[in-house]
Structure formats: C-alpha cells, structure tokens
Amino acid sequence: MDSPLRIHLITPAPSRARGGNWTTAARWATMLxxxxxRVAVTRDYHGEPAELMIALHAWRSADSIERFANxxxxxxxxxxxxGTDAYRFIHSHPAPTLRSIQxxxxxxxxxxxxxxxxxEEHRRKLRVIHQSAPPGLSRRPARRDFRVCVAxxxxxxxxxxxxxxxxxxxxxxxxLRVDLFGAAHSPDWAAQxxxxxxxxxxxxxxxxxxxxxxxRAFARSHLLVLPSxxxxxxxxxxxxxxxDLPVVASRIHGSIGLLGEDYPGFYPVxxxxxxxSVLLLAERDPGFYDALEHACRALRPLFDAAREERELEKLxxxxxx
Length: 321
Hints:
Elements: E1 6-10, H1 20-34, E2 38-42, E3 52-56, H2 62-71, E4 77-80, H3 83-92, H4 94-103, E5 106-109, E6 126-128, E7 146-151, H5 162-166, E8 176-181, H6 187-199, E9 203-207, H7 211-220, E10 223-226, H8 235-242, E11 247-250, H9 253-259, E12 266-267, H10 272-284, H11 286-298, H12 305-320
Helix pairs in contact: 2-4, 3-4, 10-11
C-alpha cells in the first residue's frame, strides 16, 4: 500500500484516560502516521471520510462499527477484541458484540489464546498483534524493602486489592511492600483502598500518576503483580518485561497468552493466600527470582516496537491491498 490512507481509529476510552484502550489507540495512531497514513482517533464515528476503520472494543464501539459498515460496506473494517469483549460481553451482551464480530473483515486479538473465545465460524478472520512497550529506565530496586508494583485502575476486573490482602499479617522478617497505582472507578473503590491503607502498613495506594512516575516506580520495584480477573492482553506486562521487571500474574487466558503456559510466576486468580506464597518465595528464594527474571528476559522480542509496527503495517496492507 503505497498511497496514504485516511484511517478512522475508534476507542471508547477518553483521551485523558491512561487505561489500556487509550494507550493502544495512541500508540497505533503514532505508528500508522509514521507509515504515512492520516489517522483520526475518536470515541465515535459519525460519517467522517475514511478508507479504513479500526475499532477497539467490539461491544463499546458497536454503534460506530455498525454505522461504518452500513455507510461503507465496501471499505475494510478491523475490530480489536478487548478483554471485556472476550470474557464478559460476548456472554452478557452477545447481540451487539457478535454483530461487531460479524461485520469485521479482520479481527485482532492481543494475546495468543484469544482464538478460544472467538466463535469458530469467525476464527479465520482473526490475527494476533502483540502490543509493544518502550525500554524501561535503568533498574535500581529499593534496598530497604522488597517492593511489589501493581498498575491498574481500581475496578472489579482488575482485582486490585488482592496483592494488598496477600501481604497482610506477614512475618516481621519479610520486607514485602505493595504499591498500587491507578484511578478508582468509583467512590466505593477509593474507600476500600483507603481503608486497606489504614489497616495494612505494607500497602500504599498512590492513585493515578503520570506515565513517567510509573516508569520510575518500575525501576525501584522488585516485581510487578497483575492480579486481573480478565485481560485482553495487558499493556502493563510488556511494559514490565521491557523494564526488566519480573512479573507475577493471575492464571488467566489473557496473561497465559502473553507469558506462556509454562511461565513460573502464575497463581490462581483471586487467591490471596496463593499469591502470598509466590511473593514470599520471590523474596526469599534467589533461584525462583532468577527464574522469573530469565523467563521475562526471553520474552523481550515479543514486545519490541518495530515488530508491532511491522504487524500493523501488514494488517493495513492485507485488508486494503
């Protein structure tokens, strides 16, 4: 595809958000512009000129997807499946989610097990693009504490307080501390985090912070914990891997599809006691910690920005060529 395209990229996340959907949309827009295309990023589609639509979120973007498909049935449409699409809305709101999947010329998943959630008749349309992350800052982990970083908004899907529960009532000899970064999606979540801080001296909720502060937190941490109950292929895993920060994650498809079935740092989803055991093992057993580091280091090529840009370029060539 030698001539530039007008591409409309839809994301349900507002531009001020720092969540996964907006992060993906902003990064892809930058890459597509670097490839020479003209890209508009909006939350909705209302008939603007476009030769191609890329829509993040089959359910939340369903109206825009339907509008583009009806107005331009001969123009390519790409739908990116998020975690809530694949693991919630395809069951709780199947009609609009499946309409979006049906309308798509190509479906994009963000991890290697996403095909298991796509209806069999549409799997031929599916391809995976792994999300990239920039190299992290030079790591200088804290010496006084063994710091565990949790990065994600406070809402049910993220199970954000599980790591805090995991470090309650630890032996005095443990240096484990949990730092949670992310905005609360409701006053109730904020109250829960504040109550946990008041009762748990090993836990601190920092609220939403700019990206540069999170990068500094990664550099000072010993582990990243991703406790989510569902993910479509979390950006934060790639960010941690590229920052040389070992990952501990709940055993869900979205994380297994990035880290691999044999990754040593999984624990059963929602099981704070099991997470406690993994965190203590990482703190106390250098061999286990080294295994986490080695496994993450081996994954670095998966999250390389040049690789993601090549995959995105191939996507555009294939659907428009």
